Amino acid sequence: MSGNPDFMPFALPDIGEEEIAAVVACLRSGWITTGPKTREFEADFARFIGGGVEAVAVNSATAGLHLALEAIGIGPGDRVLTTPWTFTATAEVVRYLGAEVVFADVDPRTLNLDPARAADALAKVPGIKAMVPVHFAGQACDMRALGALAAHHGIPVVEDAAHALPTTFDGATVGTLSRATVFSFYATKTIATGEGGMIVSADRELLARARTMRLHGINRDVFDRYRSTAPSWYYEVVAPGFKYNMPDLAAALGVEQLKKAHAFRERRAAIAARYTEAFRDLPVSVPHVERPADTHAWHLYVLQLRLEELAIDRDRFIELMAARGIGTSVHFIPLHLQPYWRDRYGFAPADYPVAGGAFRRAVSLPLYTRMTDTDVGRVIDAVRDILRDHRR
Questions:
Q1: Is the pTM of this model over 0.90?
Q2: Residues 115-151: tens digit of each pLDDT
Q3: Alpha-carbon distance 239 to 217, whole Å?
Q4: CA dist., res. 251 & res. 57, Å (int)
Q5: What confidence tens digit (pLDDT) does each residue in 242-274 have?
Q6: Are strands 168-169 and 172-173 parallel, antiparallel or unpaired?
Q7: What's residue 1's pLDDT?
Q8: Percent of the chain's residues with pLDDT above 70
Q9: Residue in 248, 306, 296, 232 with CA at minimum distance from that of residue 270
Q10: Domains of the chain with bracketed CATH
């Protein structure tokens, strides 16, 4: 963050006295690792999603995606289909398992995984064993088309819903639409525990595997071992697991943040609506909402600059916004342009032209619930001034 006290950051968590009190109570309880608060958060979250799902809390969405893919049996020699328009975690967990990533380009309007391009990849590339769509910015992918495609090929879907709480698709909550769904509670997300994630599924066997593997492959959580009467010390290691458990300190934040999730979304949606109305006459493309009846979480508000109408590029726009004391970001640098993925698979920039083209134009504006109406107006004024001053 800038040292300028008037600098507006790109994002801030919204932590209230309720969260502070919950963490203090957790500290005073003496139980700060995985225990009763984590159990409470899991139960609350499953009820929030609905549809008969259960939830397993982990220390990040990255961990959740890794555990979900491991639980459905992804391993060496397999391939997993996803999008290059995402953070590297979506793809890197595939490599953790010794499997390979297959990318399919995105829809130019929503920047979500394009079902037609996904179908092409599934037809051309053998050995694809799972699909991981990413609900970009908080808008649901076309889960009807992607679900039908996955069913046709007999592969499970694990959704990356890091941006998508609360989001719906055609009246159904994201988290109830596929084999498993993974949410993020990172500091910038729609609810925040600092670090943290949640695996949601109606598949009890998948979740049982995830529970075991999140803590060293031990078949009993530490809470069970320490509160049990006899024998409290005994456990069995049944697999070479990981250290992915969520501590109660984070879960205490989550319990309180979840109570505010709908109110947070309403505020984000109101800010997004103000932005969209203010920018319609500018040389930009505002976020396309594919299905207005769906619930959009509005984790991000991404403008795409119409560069052919401007005398500046995206990077200069970001510099000029910073000069006005406003932080911005870019979501995302497509994975096929990143050195690891580019070099491993021999990708060229033109291999995924929609993602590559969007990258050159995309800029994410501040969008967080602690923004005041004055803050929102300040962002609007800066965007309008900069784009009008540099219009061709």
A1: yes
A2: 999 999 999 999 999 999 999 999 999 999 999 999 9
A3: 5
A4: 8
A5: 999 999 999 999 999 999 999 999 999 999 999
A6: antiparallel
A7: 45
A8: 96
A9: 296
A10: 17-260 (3.40.640.10), 262-389 (3.90.1150.10)
Output DSSP code: residue 291: -
Give the Cα-Cα-Cα angle 78, 84, 86 (nearest 5 degrees).
105
Strands 180-184 and 197-201: antiparallel
124 belongs to the catalytic site: no
Contact by Cβ (8 Å): 91, 344: no
Q: Largest alpha-carbon pair distance within the chain? A: 77
Who contacts 197 (Cβ-Cβ below 8 Å, separation ≥6)? 57, 58, 59, 60, 61, 62, 63, 64, 162, 182, 183, 184, 185, 246
Three-class secondary structure of residue 296 per DSSP: coil
Q: What value does the CA radius of gyration of the chain take, rounded to a whole number of Å?
A: 21
Q: Does residue 102 have a pLDDT over 50? A: yes
Left if phi > 0, otherwise alpha if psi is -120 to 50, otherwise beta: which for 345? alpha
Q: Which of 124, 129, 189, 260 is catalytic?
A: 189
| pLDDT > 60? residue 229 | no
Amino acid at 150: A
Beta bridge partners of 164: none
Please work out, in degrees rounded to the nearest 5, the angle formed at the alpha carbon of residue 260 by the alpha carbons of 255 and 265. Answer: 130
First to last CA, the chain: 32
Helix H or strand E encompassing 82: strand 79-82
